[in-house]
Every structure is written in C-alpha cells, then in structure tokens.
Amino acid sequence: MTTRRKVLQGLTLAAPTLLLGCDRLSQSPSFRDLLKTGDWLSYRVQRLIGSDALAREFAPSEMSPVFRTNGNTMPGSADYQRLLTTQFADWRLQVTGLVEAPAALSLADLRAMPTRTQITRHDCVEGWSAIGKWTGTPLGAVLEQARLKPAARYIVFHCADDFYGTPYYESIDLADALHPQTILAYGMNDAPLPTGHGAPIRVRIERQLGYKSAKFIMGVEAVSDLSGFGKGEGGFWEDVAFYDWYAGI
Amino acid sequence: MPSETQAAGPAPKGGDLIRRHRLSTRIWHWLNAVTLLVMLMSGLMIFNAHPRLYWGQYGANNDPGWLEIGSTNGGRGVLLIGSRSFDTTGVLGLSTGANGQPVEVAFPGWATVPSTYDLALARRRHLTFAWLLSASIVAYLLWSLVNGHLRRDLAPKGRELRPGHIFHEIAQHARLRLPKGEAARHYNTLQKFSYLAVILVLIPLMVLTGLTMSPQMDAAWPWLLDVFGGRQSARSIHFITAWLLVGFVIVHLLMVLLAGPLNEIRSMITGWFRLPKERAR
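ok -> structure tokens follow
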C-alpha cells in the first residue's frame, strides 16, 4: 500500500509541474518551430493527395437557415464608410504585384467576367460550420487576365478592415488561387454580399478554414514570397496569434 | 508475448520470469501514453473555442446542438445534453482560474494545454501530435499483422468466445480475481476485446473523424463525409470517441494497480514479467 500511495502522491505532484512545463514550453522559439512541422507536413501531404480536388457542393435544401458572421463585421475606416454610402460605385479591385497587366476592376467589371455559383460549407477554426451559397468571379479568371509573371508564387489579399489598427490580410498559394472554386464573391444566398460577410467582395477558399476567406477585399497582389507583409507569417491571425498559414486542416 | 515462450521445456508457472511484451509493443505503448495525453488536453482546448456539438453537415450558434457546455447569468456552470441540464459549477462551464478568479470556460485550465485560452497553440500541438498518433497506429497494426501479434496474442480463440467463458471472466474480474500463474501468460478475453477495440476501432475512428474535420481532406476524400454523416457529426463522434479512450485508460490504469503495478510497469519497460503466484488452495 505504501508504494501505491507514493505513486499516487507522485502523480498528483507531477501533474501541475507537467502543466506548467507545457505552458512554458509553448513560449520557447525552438518548440514553436517544432510545432510548425505539423502544419508543414499537412500542407505537403494534402497538396500531394488532392491538389485539384473540389470541395463538396450542397443542395439548396442543405443550406444553414442562419449563416452567422464572424470577425470584423463593419470596417471602421472613413474610406470604407464612403464606399459603403455610394454602394461601392468608386470601389476598384487593385490587381497588382507580379502581373504583366495590373488592373483596377469595378464591381461591374467583375460581374461582366465569368461567374460561378456554389453552395459550400464554411468551416471556422473555432469548430462550427455553416453552408451558404456564394456567387462571384473565379480568382483564376482575374489572374489570367492580369497574366501572372513566372516568379509569382502566392496571392495576397489586402482588406479594408483592421483589428486595433492592424490591417487584416491573408495569402494563399497558386494551387488554391487558380482552383476553380476560389471565387471573389460579390453575392451570397442570392443577394448582394452583406456588409457583415465582407462587402463588396470576399474571397472563398473552400478547402481551407474561414480565416483564409478574407473579407472587404481592396486588392489582390501576386508575390514571390510573404516576408514583406505584416510580420511575415502570411496573414493577420498568423502574425498576431500563431495560427497556421496552411489551414486545410 | 506467449509466442516467445512456447519453446520446449516445462510450462512456466507462478513466480517465473517470462518475456511478456515485444519491443514494438513497448515503444508503441509509451509513445501512445504521451501522444494521447497531449491530444486529449489540446483537444479539450480546441473544444473550448466552440463548446457545442451538432449532428449533420453544418452546425453553428443558431442551430440546435445536442451537447453544450456553458455558464448561466447566475454564475453557474452547466452541461446540457439533449434536453437535460446538469449543474457542473467548478468543473465545466465555470471554474477557478490560475489567479483564483472564476473563469467562464468549458473545460477547466487544469485539463487543457495551454492552460489558458489559446486555440492557435492548441491546434498546433494537436495537429503535430496527430501525425505521431496516425503514423504509429498504422505502423503498429501493419507490424502486428506481420509478426503475428494480432493473430496469436490478440485474436480471441474459439473457446474464449463462448458466452459461458466470457461470463466466467466477467464474474472473476468483478470479484477482482485476476488470472495467476500459467493463465496470466496470455491476455484474457476481456483484455483482448478491449485492446482490439482500441487499436482496431477507437484510434482509427479518432484519426478518421479528425480527418473529416479537415476541409481539404473532405475535398480529397469526399467519402469521409458520407461515412460519418457530415463534418459536424464527425466532430461529435470525435468527441465521444475521445471519452471512450479516456474510459479505457482509466480502467487500464486501475487494472495495472490491481494486478501489481511494479511488475506490470516493468514488463512494459523491459519486457520481463513475473507470473503471479497461483492462489493457495
């Protein structure tokens, strides 16, 4: 019995130490690098087994009755307010970076381009899912028109919203950028994209978690690497809270 | 285990030292002990980000959930399962934080890594260790097929499946009369059932329902959504299966304590196990 009691005592003493150790470990840069290997491995393997695969599309009857908003629902800047009051008449999507033909596209320009409508599932990193209908221009069509330079490897989305003054931005690789379901959505559930969901356009990255599907998009920029944006991790949440850049899992 | 002791000579008896666990079993066991603990505690933190569960393809705050952990305005922690409500103040929904102040959080800080809310770090841990868990279960299952561990040590023999035998074992276990001597050389039927359930059902189910929560995997392997009935159903099954594994570990640790913890732990470290002496008649 004494040994058993000692073992139990040892366990109860060890548990909090273990917990403290885990929390402290989280702060160590080398341990954080180690934890990045999981995301890197998932990215490589998932690109290998399903780079071209399409996300499931659902029937209208399978849509969420209510599609909740998340993150910023109303950008605070005066510029955005002005755009909003004029129903984005002066809004132009700036297509810049490593492209042969930079462009500034109005909503009318985008609507005149190829259109795609899809009913897909939105998965938040927190765990919830909602199914909604999105209508927009394939990002691939926009990039084809602008003609990507060979050095381009990523597409960066510049957004109108910010958190405490730090602008939101996101980035994806070309496999997702040129994927047929990656659209610049100006419509949701058969209506113009509501402000809370990112008017005038948000991107839909259907095979990654919700924070990659940036809202309130002002510009798309083709780049060869991501180190020049924010803190260099490839997105707002990646920079400020150590979220995975690859959010396919 | 037994295969290595089938050499000629007198059958071992109580008190003899025998080779019990192969190296592959011992490595896999301890790897799992660490991995499953990290997976559980980081998983509970991930759950804390949205402490509601649903059935079906979608599910968010406005949709009916079948399980929810939260707190009331009156300062009580509650667990809701279906239409039933349980007061879980102090543990679930509302607990005391590290600074002594009450915190509104589904699972308390002592059960999660990190101990304070950090979804990003919990996901990093969970999804890195998930690779370890998946790789080791695949390797262990394949190796156990090759070296005969599954067939010789884990698959119940015909007579062990007879209801009479199983009832007898249950009765013996209930009286805490564990196998001694020669009988302790082999896993008993209840052990075989529970180990097989873990390696063939529970851990594979954890991996597959985990993959179903990955939007890219749902695109690459859409059958995952059909098998589990949707991403939110997969999330619910993932949660339930995690607790079944916790249940297994609790019973497993109790049995180790009852069967003689030092001898059992030594056998899982060195491979050598001293057969318990036969009961005096």
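Chain A touches chain B through 53 residues (CB under 8 Å).
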